[in-house]
Amino acid sequence: SKWLVSAAFGAFFLWRHDADALWVATGAVINSVLSVVLKRILNQERPFPTARGDPGMPSSHAQSIFYIVTFGVLASKVPSSTTQSAPFLACWLVRFLDWQSWLRVSQKLHTVNQVVVGAVVGTGFSALWYWLWSEFVFQAFISSVWVRLVVVLGALTFCVSFIVYVINYWLIDD
């Protein structure tokens, strides 16, 4: 599912290719880094330690899934021509991604607690990231060329770094 999530973000970014998409993608990368840091700090084993080499707390999949869902739900509350069907899609997405999280437990890759903590962290970070954009960064982005430059270059740096990470680690693992 890491490939599915990565492909979804790539498609979203290519479809939208605007400041909002850059902000969402940057948040997704930071959320992934947060997950890795929390795994190292909490260092809780998976239900079956041989399933994966990294710790299980929090579930990175649940954290990423709930980051996406929360941002999508919050963004769907903003009226625009592109979000008319967003509430329906958000409900469908919540259900589908909830099922994806449940699969992590049923396949014994995570405990329920690991998935719940991942969901809570992903939801909380997403709400914070959305709030920062909507309350502070967006207005500054519109009004200042320097803020646009920092946001765009920062987003590109984070996203390119993530792509390099994917190539170096995910392709080797698979």
TrEMBL record:
The chain crosses the membrane at residues 21-42, 112-133, 145-171. GO terms for biological process: lipid biosynthetic process; protein N-linked glycosylation. Keywords: Hydrolase, Membrane, Transmembrane, Transmembrane helix. The keyword Transmembrane helix applies. It holds the Pfam family PAP2. GO terms for molecular function: dolichyldiphosphatase activity. Residues 21-134 form the Phosphatidic acid phosphatase type 2/haloperoxidase domain. InterPro entries: PAP2/HPO, PAP2/HPO_sf. One of its GO terms (cellular component) is endoplasmic reticulum membrane. This is Phosphatidic acid phosphatase type 2/haloperoxidase domain-containing protein.
